[in-house]
Amino acid sequence: MKEEAKRSAKQPGLPPGTLAFVGRKRTESVRIRVVDYGREVLETFDLEQVEDCSDLTRRHTNLWVHVSGLHRVGVVERLGHCFQIPPLILEDILNTGHRPKVELLDQGIFVLLKFFSMDPITAVMEVEQVCFVLTEEALVSFQESDRPIFEPVIKRLSNPRSRLRQSGPDYLLYCLMDLVVDHYFVVLEALGDRIEDLEEALFDEQWRELLDDIHRVRRQCLFMRRASLPLREAVSVLWREEGSLMKETTQPYLKDLYDHVLQALDILDNHREMGSALLEVYLSTQSNRMNEVMKVLTIIATIFIPVTFIAGVYGMNFEHMPELKWPWAYPAVWIVMIGVGVLMLFYFRKKKWL
């Protein structure tokens, strides 16, 4: 997960519905992108003044309003007032640490998701919050950063024959959610490749440097699983929702999205178990290597025990030791000590201790 040096937090004790941004502090400007589309119409422009959003509700085509950046609370508040988004929903939108969910409103549907991505160079997992509010007038989406994560959907809108142009905002909501879930598989594939690399590296010489990488992968899997589990319930609620906002023609696509979420969770559980198994293999490998080192040291110490005994006996300073007067005593002692060592090595190898 991407480390965030400074994060703003909401002060405790504030009444419900108080708008305060909770998340990483940013300085870039907030961008409001408007996509007005229909069977024969496609118009894309940036809304320079948030006060002009009241004019958007008078259009008779499908409307998608995308907000990039949540750190300007005033902009989000005025936009919510324009599209009649309840203050409690705006509070959840501004809290980037909120869990994924789907909430059915009196006049709309609120969807909160987590968008995951993986840096291919640093292998750092990045996560940001995306929210969608589907109303009778439009689909309003909120993104924590200004990354163009929804560009593939915008390119599909440029095709007048696409299903997006022929359908309403409910199908657009499905497409955006499906894009978020598709990125889960991209991250899961990167995690799987990283786990395979770590598994192969466990038996190489650089095994001491793998512990931090293993812990990082396990933390990424746990964090992604914690953020993905509520998504299963959220998509299920949206799939089974019966109302005028979600048309019957969109229900099969939501069912397919639900299957994708279940598949992603199964892969994630598998990666999590593999990460735990990697840690166990690492600890077992480290223990085996330590046992090998201790075995070698023990064999060396065992060989030198009789040699040390012989050297200690003839190192005593007694006057009456006849062996010390013999001319061949010194080489004889060397032969005996070397012979004892060779015999012990032969015995150890016969016992397959070496």
UniProtKB/TrEMBL annotation:
InterPro entries: CorA_cytoplasmic_dom, CorA_TM1_TM2, Mg/Co-transport_prot_CorA, MgTranspt_CorA/ZnTranspt_ZntB
Transmembrane segments: 296-316, 328-348
Keyword Metal-binding belongs to the record: no
Predominant location: membrane
GO cellular component, one term: plasma membrane
GO function terms (MF aspect): cobalt ion binding; cobalt ion transmembrane transporter activity; magnesium ion binding; magnesium ion transmembrane transporter activity
Membrane topology: Multi-pass membrane protein
Subcellular compartments: Cell membrane; Membrane
Keywords in alphabetical order: Cell membrane, Ion transport, Magnesium, Membrane, Transmembrane, Transmembrane helix, Transport
Domain of life: Bacteria
Gene3D superfamilies attached to this UniProt entry: CorA soluble domain-like, Magnesium transport protein CorA, transmembrane region
Record-linked CDD domains: TmCorA-like_1
Record function comment: Mediates influx of magnesium ions.
Stated family: Belongs to the CorA metal ion transporter (MIT) (TC 1.A.35) family.
Name of the protein described by the UniProt record: Magnesium transport protein CorA
GN (gene name): corA
